[in-house]
Amino acid sequence: MKTLRSVAAMALSASVICVSSASADAHSKEGWPTSFTVGTASQGGTYFAYGTGWANFVAENLGVGGGSEITGGPMQNMALVHTGEVAFGLTTMGPARESMNGNSPLAPGLKMDNVCAMFPMYQTPFSVTALSSSGITSIADIPDGARIGFGPAGSTSDTYFPAMLETLGVNFDRRNGGWSDLGSQLQDGLLDVIAFAAGIPIPAVSQLEVQTDVNIIEFTQDELNQITAAFPVAEFTIPASTYTTLTGDARAVSMWNFAIADCTLPDSFVYEATKLTMENNDQMVSIHNSARSSVPANFNKNTVIPWHPGAAKWFNENGYTIDSSQIK
């Protein structure tokens, strides 16, 4: 099973970002790993910022060495957590369902059942960005054969956004890459559009706003109706305050993200990491604004992944009922 790393690596070469850790206390840590890694996604995206900050937060407070790994995103994180090559990861409900059902493009036929839910993160809006100079102000304006960046291969955006745009009648030339790289390509005229699926504010979009004029393109109500009928997403509103470019709220669709854990991790370790995260939302928000949605009440947005016993224990102790049938 460990050979899955070589398959997943084709989606994106992985590199490790190290973060600090406090000295470990000996009490109540029997069986805990000496260090852990969190699978994130490409630089310039929300997963990278959120996951790296969260790894640092857990390491410093639980006294276990921690770090984050740049990966291809949700699909690859499911694979890496399933094989135990990373302890934790970040994923989205759609890719999680595909992976658990054995439909991951990284390992067709392999049901990834060693992945457990840990806590809710935030909703991933699907949004489209173009340079203002392109004249593209709506989905209908995207010209035939437009060069569209869909993020890293196997990412949530790459998995769902091409099919969404095809449903809306868009004909395009598909491109992949990390969000920061795609942002640079858009600015340099090598791309016409970027189709983002990432928590807001997306670092790459915020950076583009500083450097040039962009259009953040919303869906029409008819387009929303078509997409929500065909894909596992829900209507979402990007608040006008998210970006300086927006003059009003923007219509979008979204999919929920959850932190995941290797199901074989000690219950007490996952319990303490969940407790730390769920009881300190102000510090999570300081890591990334999207963490405003990383609150216990959103536990029920997980309709796909079985819960890790350690995480479920914290939720059940604090009035958020997770039935035993939903626990690994």
Using the 3D structure, state the CATH architecture of the largest domain. Answer: 3-Layer(aba) Sandwich
Shape descriptor reads globular
Write down the Rg. Answer: 19 Å
* Low-pLDDT residue intervals, each spanning 5 or more residues: 1-15, 18-24
Total strand segments: 11
Classified in CATH, the superfamily of the largest domain is: Periplasmic binding protein-like II
Could you please describe the fold and organization of this structure?
The structure is a single chain. This protein has 328 residues and is α/β, with parallel strands linked by helices. The chain has 2 domains: 4-121 and 258-326, 3-Layer(aba) Sandwich (D-Maltodextrin-Binding Protein, domain 2), CATH 3.40.190.10; 124-254, Periplasmic binding protein-like II (D-Maltodextrin-Binding Protein, domain 2). Helix content is 33%, strand content 22%. The protein is built from 11 helices and 11 strands. The chain has helices at 4-8, 46-62, 74-83, 93-100, 156-167, 179-187, 203-211, 221-230, 267-278, 281-287, 309-317; strands at residues 15-18, 35-39, 65-70, 88-92, 115-131, 146-149, 172-175, 193-197, 214-217, 234-238, 250-262. Strands 1, 2, 3, 4, 5, 6, 7, 8, 9, 10 and 11 form an 11-stranded mixed sheet that branches. Helix 2 (46-62) links the parallel strand 2 (35-39) and strand 3. Helix 2 (46-62) crosses helix 9 and helix 3 (74-83) crosses helix 4 (93-100). The longest helix is centred in the first third of the chain and has 17 residues, at 46-62. 51% of the residues are buried. InterPro entries: TRAP_TAXI. Keywords: Signal.
